[in-house]
């Protein structure tokens, strides 16, 4: 309580303990029971009865003292452990119990060191007391009593306890018989009360048993969540307690130099501190283990990389040796079997288009057979009128380009939507049914045209003028029947797709360019066919077919069935076979002559307009056309008709 006052704490004083009041009653000056006993012992006329009367006189009304109801030589002291009755018989004699000087001399000279040491101390104390009595003006020295010795020993023990930190171990007996598995509550409670434990617990509960200086308490500073940098340690302590315990709280008080805590607050601080330490230890362990695992991972990765490098090298060397051995064996086999392979390949290519029979044996219409017999001289005469020329003076404007969405129209899309089967037939094989969906009235014509196409591509007995006649006959069938045009284009595409014979493939592309010169594919086939010739066309023929499809599309935008009036001319056949351009000699009425390029899908008005533009006429030239002089006759051409139809009509 004195420390609470010094630290300026707000507290309620605790009443004096029961044990302290009882001790004062027994040993305090001048009328404590032990003091009265010493005083009576020093008087020669005192007796046990006078000692008892003195006790009755001074302590008769004390709460710790009780007189006997009968006149007996006894008195009762109410200790905190319970009332104890004392018999005063021979109290004074027992208190005077002293050893004679002769006894002290004899035992102090004992050969046993322990005995001589004890009695030498007693003899020295007796001599010191005797000297003090001699200095006291001749008075008789006061004899040492048992009570004085007990009090002196008790004072020494108390002083020693105050100088040290004492720890007591209280042993509690569960039952008076000391048997196992028996717990007597009243007996244990009595022991706790008599040993002062309950009173000590009450005192600790009322006060603040844990007292820590500010410097020691700041070891809990990390519990505040962040390090407070205040000017005073007291404010740091208050911040920690406010964060952990709460503010305000009756579990703690902060003094001038110390922090006073109740047991609950101390336990809360310790629990939080242990949790913080556990978290810190776990964090350190986690980071250290992570560091070890990363180091081990790097080492393992390096080792794995080395192992992989060696193993891959081993596999590569093994594979190289195997491939080298296989290559040597393969080269040996090729050298041995090369003549046989070449002969077999030649036989396969020769028999590929022949199939079950020679295409030259396929039947042809009677009218075509008659034309082949009668038209030989005429076609030879027309072929002699076509010669190679220098680059033209007037060229066609090259302003065409592929549609930006051409890649969205593969030929496979047309196959899926218009073919009866989703695959191409083998090149050179006659069809059993048309490729596209046709009405019943056109199916026989489609199969007949298929035989003509196979003969045009695969019959090696056909000569130049015969090819032209057969090709024009196929083109004429397409000009006369719009429903067969997509079927004809599809059959020609089937013959060009993955054809191993280059000669047959070239004939198929010549036929494709010839057909595109006189009629255009339907809108459904236009872009897929343009995509096909762009991706798979033979060198030179892809550009020729692209231009014919794009120029034809300009005339078929309004009417998809629009076409040329006559089959391709001899000039177109020659240009398609040689993958070249067509040039005509143009004469004017002022006797000028110059060469000008012409295309299959060019009208008379377009041709005349380009000629006038080339001669410097900047105005739009509409209504102009051309005429052709044959022998003594002029043949005029309407502006909307095609230039090469004028030549085709003459042929």
Q: How is this structure best described in words?
A:
This protein is mainly α and 651 residues long. Among the domains are: 1-98 and 143-166, Methane Monooxygenase Hydroxylase, Chain G, domain 1, CATH 1.20.58.530; 360-385 and 396-578, Alpha Horseshoe (Serine Threonine Protein Phosphatase 5, Tetratricopeptide repeat); 602-650, no CATH class. 56% of the residues lie in helices and 7% in strands. The protein is built from 25 helices and ten strands. Strands 1-2-3 form a three-stranded antiparallel β-sheet. Strands 4-6-5 form a three-stranded antiparallel β-sheet. A hairpin with a 2-residue loop joins strand 2 and strand 3. Helix 17 runs parallel beside helix 19 (485-496). The termini are far apart. The model is unreliable at 137-141 and 351-357 (pLDDT under 50).
Largest sheet: 3 strands, antiparallel
Parts with pLDDT < 50 across at least 5 consecutive residues: 137-141, 351-357
Proportion of β residues? 5-15%
Strand order of the largest sheet: 1-2-3
What's the CATH topology label of the domain at 360-385 and 396-578?
A: Serine Threonine Protein Phosphatase 5, Tetratricopeptide repeat
Distance between the termini: 141 Å
Global mean pLDDT: 81
CATH homologous superfamily of the domain at 360-385 and 396-578 - what is it?
MyTH4 domain
Give the proportion of residues in helices: 55-70%
CATH class of the domain at 360-385 and 396-578: Mainly Alpha
Number of helices: 25
Shape: rod-shaped
Protein name: Unconventional myosin-XVB
Domain MyTH4: 426-577
Family: Belongs to the TRAFAC class myosin-kinesin ATPase superfamily. Myosin family.
InterPro entries: IQ_motif_EF-hand-BS (IPR000048), Kinesin_motor_dom_sf (IPR036961), Myosin_head_motor_dom-like (IPR001609), MyTH4_dom (IPR000857), MyTH4_dom_sf (IPR038185), P-loop_NTPase (IPR027417), Unconventional_Myosin_ATPase (IPR051567)
């Amino acid at each position: 309580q004195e420390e609470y006052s010094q630290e300026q704490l707000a507290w309620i004083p605790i009443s004096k303990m029961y044990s302290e009041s009882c001790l004062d009653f027994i040993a305090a000056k001048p009328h404590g029971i032990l003091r009265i006993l010493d005083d009576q012992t020093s008087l020669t006329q005192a007796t046990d009865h006078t000692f008892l009367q003195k006790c009755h006189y001074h302590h008769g009304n004390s709460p710790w003292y009780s007189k006997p109801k009968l006149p007996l030589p006894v008195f009762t002291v109410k200790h905190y452990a319970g009332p104890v009755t004392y018999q005063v018989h021979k109290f004074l004699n027992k208190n005077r119990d002293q050893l004679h000087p002769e006894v002290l001399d004899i035992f102090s000279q004992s050969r046993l060191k322990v005995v001589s040491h004890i009695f030498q101390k007693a003899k020295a104390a007796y001599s010191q007391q005797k000297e003090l009595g001699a200095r006291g003006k001749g008075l008789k020295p006061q004899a040492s009593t048992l009570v004085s010795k007990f009090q002196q020993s008790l004072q020494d023990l108390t002083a020693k306890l105050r100088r040290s930190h004492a720890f007591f171990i209280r042993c509690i007996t569960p039952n008076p018989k000391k048997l196992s598995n028996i717990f007597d509550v009243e007996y244990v409670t009595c022991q706790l009360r008599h040993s002062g434990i309950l009173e000590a617990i009450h005192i600790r509960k009322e006060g603040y048993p844990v007292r820590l200086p500010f410097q020691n308490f700041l070891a809990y500073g990390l519990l505040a969540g962040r390090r407070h940098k205040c000017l005073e340690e007291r404010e740091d302590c208050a911040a920690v307690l406010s964060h952990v315990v709460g503010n305000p709280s009756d579990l703690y008080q902060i003094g001038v130099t110390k922090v006073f805590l109740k047991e609950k607050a101390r336990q809360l601080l310790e629990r939080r501190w242990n949790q913080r330490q556990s978290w810190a230890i776990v964090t350190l362990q986690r980071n250290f283990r992570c560091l070890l695992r990363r180091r081990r991972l790097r080492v393992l990765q390096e080792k794995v990389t080395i192992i992989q490098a060696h193993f891959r090298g081993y596999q590569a060397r093994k594979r190289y040796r195997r491939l080298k051995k296989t290559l040597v064996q393969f080269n040996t086999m090729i050298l041995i079997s090369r003549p046989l392979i070449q002969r077999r390949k030649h036989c396969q290519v020769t028999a590929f288009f022949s199939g079950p029979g020679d295409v030259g044996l396929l039947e042809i219409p009677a009218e075509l057979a008659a034309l082949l017999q009668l038209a030989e001289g005429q076609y030879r005469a027309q072929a002699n009128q076509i010669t190679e020329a220098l680059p033209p003076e007037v060229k066609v404007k090259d302003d065409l380009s592929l549609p930006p969405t051409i890649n969205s129209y593969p030929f496979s899309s047309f196959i899926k939507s218009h073919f009866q089967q989703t695959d191409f037939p083998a090149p050179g094989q006659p069809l059993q049914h048309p490729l596209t969906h046709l009405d019943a009235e056109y199916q026989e014509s489609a199969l007949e045209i298929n035989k003509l196409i196979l003969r045009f591509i695969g019959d090696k007995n056909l000569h130049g003028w015969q090819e032209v006649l057969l090709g024009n006959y196929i083109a004429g069938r397409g000009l006369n029947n719009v429903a067969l045009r997509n079927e004809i284009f599809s059959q020609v595409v089937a013959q060009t797709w993955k054809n191993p014979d280059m000669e047959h493939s070239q004939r198929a592309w010549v036929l494709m360019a010839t057909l595109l010169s006189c009629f255009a594919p339907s809108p459904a086939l236009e872009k897929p066919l343009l995509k096909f010739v762009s991706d798979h066309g033979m060198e030179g023929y892809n550009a020729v077919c692209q231009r014919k499809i794009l120029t034809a599309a300009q005339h078929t935008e309004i009417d998809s069935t629009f076409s040329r009036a006559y089959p391709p001319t001899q000039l177109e056949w020659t240009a398609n076979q040689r993958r070249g351009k067509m040039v005509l000699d143009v004469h004017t009425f002022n006797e000028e002559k110059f060469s000008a390029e012409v295309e299959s899908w060019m009208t008379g008005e377009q041709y005349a307009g380009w000629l006038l533009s080339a001669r410097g006429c900047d105005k739009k030239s509409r209504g102009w056309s051309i005429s052709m002089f044959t022998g003594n006759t002029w043949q005029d051409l309407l502006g909307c008709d095609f230039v090469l139809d004028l030549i085709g009509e003459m042929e």
